[in-house]
Amino acid sequence: MEKAFLIILVLVGVGAFFGLILALADKKFAMASNPLIDEVEEILPKGQCGACGFAGCRKYAEAVVEDEAVPPNLCVPGKAAVAAKVAELTGKKAEATEPKYAHLKCRGTLTAATVAATYEGIPDCAAVKIVQGGPKGCKFGCLGFGNCVRACPFGALSMGEAGLPVVDKEICTGCGKCVSTCPQALFVLASFAAPVEVECSNHDKGAVARKYCQNACLGCGLCMKNCPHGAIKLERNLAVVDSAVCRKKCHETTCLAKCPTKAIRTLTGKAV
Predict the structure, then answer these.
(1) Which domain holds residue 79?
(2) Rg (CA), the chain
(3) pLDDT at position 214
(4) Is 14 left (phi over 0), alpha (psi -120 to 50) or beta?
(5) CATH number for 72
(6) Number of domains the chain is built from
(7) Mind listing the pLDDT tens digit for each residue in 191-225?
(8) Do 173 and 55 reside in the same domain of the chain?
(9) 190 near 199, Cβ under 8 Å?
(10) pLDDT class for 109, splitting at 50, 70, 90?
(11) What CATH number does residue 131 fall under?
């Protein structure tokens, strides 16, 4: 019993000794933190979304303060207001950036999309996709298990009654977290100035696409033919809008009139 006690006592003593050594070493070799980094970090949104290209807000604060080449407008969620404050603190110039929001390219609602199977398993989109591409007949559409909702650091996404995620444009910062999270690649960062977008991602031929979803793009090309500016192309049976051309030249959305499934729709919303 005494031997066991002595062993424990020795181990505690050794642990305390090395703990003291480490504490002294940390104090001796600790690098003084630049207070400006703390100031910059304090004004960032703290979403830790990584849209700036750095591993969290602290890393961006360090980079923008210590590296002249790092611009002050990389915090996408912070938008112009935060960029201006960072620029003021760092003595840099903040170039204007265009606000964007997350847009879902799918209208495969519970009533529009057919169900091919019943899924019983982990309620996770990535897990569902592994099992024959999900329970819906359309293998390109939203799987409906909310990975994007859980990934949004700002609470801008919620699952709607129709079985699809709903984006609150007033809250969405355009950080792109949902874009990288969705295993179906259904989210795009859309401009508030873009007039229209195709709300479908199905690359099947028209008859097959329509069979599985009433709202699917049929790849018929009618929207493309009715666009006088050449802003719409067909890529693998799917209409794709060049938003840069569209917003620059389009003053009348004539492309909407002929779409048989209303897969191309007007984008409404305002920059926040």
Answers:
(1) 35-90
(2) 26
(3) 97
(4) alpha
(5) 1.10.15
(6) 2
(7) 988 899 999 999 999 999 999 999 999 999 999 99
(8) no
(9) no
(10) very high
(11) 3.30.70.20
What is the Cβ-side half-sphere exposure of residue 105, based on CA atoms within 13 angstroms? 22
How far apart are the C-alpha atoms of 269 and 209, rounded to whole Å? 28
Write 128-137 long-range contacts (CB < 8 A, 24+): 129/183, 129/184, 136/108, 136/212, 137/113, 137/211, 137/212, 137/213
**CA atoms 39, 44, 45, 47: torsion sign:** negative
Q: What is the pTM of this model?
A: 0.81
* Co-location of 166 and 262 in the same domain: yes
* Residues 35-50 pLDDT 10s: 999 999 999 999 999 9
pLDDT > 70 in the chain, percent = 87
**143 and 248: one domain?**
yes
Instruction: Give domain status of residue 10, yes or no.
Output: no
Residue 1's Cβ-side half-sphere holds a number of Cα atoms within 13 Å equal to: 0
One-letter amino acid for residue 123 of the chain: P
Please identify, among 71, 90, 109, the residue that sits at the C-terminal boundary of a domain. Answer: 90
Residue 159 lies in a domain: yes
- Residue 60 in this model has a pLDDT that exceeds 90: yes
